[in-house]
Structure formats: C-alpha cells, structure tokens
Amino acid sequence: MVDGERLGARLDRLEHLIERLEEVRAEGLESYLEDEDLRAKAERWLQLAIQICIDVGAQFLSEVSARPPSDYAGVFTALAGAGVLGRDHAERLADAAGQRNLLVHAYLEIDDRAIFASLSRLDDLRSFARVAQRAADEG
User: Fold this and answer.
1) Nearest to 92 by CA among 112, 64, 113, 120
2) How many separate domains does the chain show?
3) pTM for this model (two decimals)
C-alpha cells in the first residue's frame, strides 16, 4: 500500500520544484544562458523533480511487480506496461530519466539549450503527479 502521507509530501515538493522551474523558463533563454547561478539552480531543481517521479513510480511498481526495472527509464516503461501510464507519456518520462542521468553523471556534457528546452515539458511531470495521486486514491 502506498504511504499516502509520504506520497503527498513528494508530490507537494514536486509541484514546488515545477513552479520554480516555470519561473526559470519565464526568464527566457538568453537570461538562462547568461546566468550561471540560474542554470545551476534549474539543473538541480530539474534533477530533483525527475527523481521524485522516478521514486514515486518505483514505489508503485514495487506493489504490482516482483521484478524491478533495470534502469530509471524502465520505471516508466513498466508503468505503461501495467496500464498506469500511456505509452507516449511513459516515453517522455523515460527521456526525462535519461536527462536526470546526464545531469548527475555526465555533467561535463550538459547542453544548456537542451536543458532550457526541457523546461517546456514540465507538464509531463505535473501530469505524472496527477496520475500517481489518482492511482493512490484508487489504491
């Protein structure tokens, strides 16, 4: 059974991070590229937001599947296979998981323009939060 209080705390944090990232997006690409501190904040906030989605997804999977996915992207693929997420949504979230890995492990290869472009896809994270909350409520 998903811990509703813990899930609620994670989803609240996710919403806060998304709101902060929307503020960064509103600054515009040029401001983003010129401001190293803004880029650093956005990268960390994006990493955390994606990680929350991964953690929430993994928690749901642990309750419906005996075999965990081999990587973070697989969390979303497995959720689609279980009928929790639509395939397109799962693919976009799997791409986000790959971006999280890039932020954490391949930080020398970060493309600032690509990170900023990903801020236009924050609704995928917000939509995942709604799906997770609905699944927990139906639990």
Assistant:
1) 120
2) 1
3) 0.94
